[in-house]
Amino acid sequence: MELLERSRTIAKPGWSRWLVPPAALAIHLSIGQAYAWSVFKPPLEKTLHISGTGSALPFQLAIVMLGLSAAFGGTLVERKGPRWAMFVSLVAFCSGLLISSLGVALSQYWIVVLGYGFVGGIGLGIGYISPVSTLIKWFPDRPGMATGIAIMGFGGGALIASPWSSQMLTSFGVTTSGISKAFLIHGIAYAVFMALGVALIRVPRPDWRPAGWTPDANAPKKLVTTANVSARNAVKTPQFWLLWIVLCFNVTAGIGILEKAAPMIVDFFKNTSTPVATTAAVGFTALLSLANMLGRFVWSSLSDRVGRKNIYRFYLGAGALLYLLLLTAGNSSTQLFVIAAMAILSFYGGGFATIPAYLRDLFGTFQVGAIHGRLLTAWSVAGVLGPLIVNAIADAGKSAGHTGSSLYTTSFYIMIALLVIGFVANELIRPVSAKFHEPATDEQPAAENGSESAESTVKN
């Protein structure tokens, strides 16, 4: 396994940093298949006779394991390097899909939960954080844009997986055999694609800087620090936990729609003059994935100009208003519902892509990958909370005889409340106290005064 060692991935002079985002995209586009889970929900419910809440379990467990594996593996990923992490992600994620294929073939749903949720979820977590700190180090001049490019792949994964999965289910049949074949093909195809990222990834030399770049003189006004905070100390700061709340509630508000996208839009317009067909609902899922993907690049790139705190004000405040719009007029127009939901998902995606840069602004680059991993436990909580709120309330409403948009009224009110709390938490964030900063090293002053190294010959 010598090829996976960090020392084997250090870029040589002349290496273009613009080859790093495609390597990250190869991983994120693959593990982003998780966002197409709603396509498998109705077939699994029908063939294995499970409820809407039950069919969400693999997805929920996968998100839980994503956060936990990112939190516990973050420091290891920093030490071992991105190639090792990407390889581990490939093995775990694709094994999870193959185990799920076996579980469906045997009509044993617990095997699907174990494979897709537990094993595959570990691949999600390690794969998700694998390129983040590397991208920030390659693009200190544009951290929001860089992480946005890669992380948009995770949001856009369903844009590929959703129609692809739907077509396979149509071709193979909505049976245990057909669903099993779909999972099997996913596992094999994604393994090949992820291997491209493993081979391509590189890390910069410790003293490398982009040619001609110097730190922003106005950085302190945007909460940007030139100091560094360790992962151990970061979790002791109020800033970390305020960001945890911001991420958790922003994710909860988006993932509640995303996980139940296809059945939700069908339910919402069931009792109206413009019902939505199941096939059209699959298209809605793809549109949400597109919004999720584009939001990760567009909003995170904008955050480089307006600052991270301001962009989160936008995500959380506008998100609450859009949920209110869905409550009051959501089922009056299919177009209105789709546009509002797409905007909410763009904020959801943007929040994910912006959070690594927000962490870098507050805690520096020293152990930003490990800090990011710990913060993703907020995603674990949100991955359970969002689908649980939406599915449990909808299931209870159906049991009580309710139909249509009324199935989601209570859950939408809860989402508004959570977004408001997240907005307040973001307002409370201030620069990190100097007592948490790492002592300056011999290299750090040089990094701060804008000096160039010999490695600036690497292509910009």
From TrEMBL:
Key word Transmembrane present: yes
Pfam family, one: MFS_1
Bias (Polar residues): 450-460
Record-annotated membrane-spanning stretches: 18-37, 57-77, 84-103, 109-132, 144-162, 182-201, 240-258, 278-299, 311-330, 336-359, 371-394, 406-425
UniProt region (Disordered), positions on chain: 439-460
Domain Major facilitator superfamily (MFS) profile: residue ranges: 1-434
Superkingdom to which the source organism belongs: Bacteria
Any GO MF annotation of the entry: transmembrane transporter activity
Subcellular location: Cell membrane
InterPro entries in the cross-refs: MFS, MFS_dom, MFS_trans_sf, Proton-linked_MCT
Cellular component, GO annotation: plasma membrane
Membrane topology: Multi-pass membrane protein
Alphabetized UniProt keyword annotations: Membrane, Transmembrane, Transmembrane helix
Protein name, as recorded: OFA family MFS transporter
